[in-house]
Predict the structure of Peptidyl-prolyl cis-trans isomerase.
Amino acid sequence: MLRRPRPALTLLPALALALSLTACGDDGAASGGGEGSGSDAVESTAVGTPFSESGAAAGTASCSYESDGQEPAREVDPPPSTAQFSGEVPGVVVTNRGDLRLTLDADNAPCTVSSFTSLADQGYFDDTPCHRLTGGGSLSVLQCGDPLGEGFGGPGYQFDDELTGSETYPAGTLAMANAGPGTNGSQFFMVYADSQLPPAYTVFGTLDDDAVATLEEIADAGSTPEGDGAPNTDVEILGVSTE
């Protein structure tokens, strides 16, 4: 089922170039600012240990995951209402282009980390394409997390931002895409070069230097349309787990 784009959250990078970094809603075509395209199928592989069996001790933050009124791209259960981790949680996004090792920040984004790990445990991200690449300059990201591969898909729930108002987005940042305040779902982005974004996107982790180098190689191949579109190098997430 195609999903209608929600209102786009406009970004204003350098030179007043208006771009958008949004997750989309129900019934319709993706907007130019949404995520966009599928990729060749890649066989799934079992990866590592589920997040629920490792990482830091459970936190105490209260989390609310409410229905977004949309049909889930994949059927999943919502996360628990209490954050499941605190501290740093190491993990890996296994892709057909190599392992992207990351560290989740459960102290500063406990509800986001709980959602991400819950979706990972349930196989939500398995065999899904990264569907949007923005090309350099003030907005340099690879966006993933939609099983539909077109920028319309979400888990059927949404949750609040976890922001301080001082967020920055240097290379190696792992952050949530959204369609406005309080609309986080499953779509996320990975920053491969320092990006100028307003502090409107929840930062919930970082990627290591090797992961950034892999993202740079993907970015070097460009996108279609050039500058903001489907990556020319297909990127398929095989699984997400802890080490």
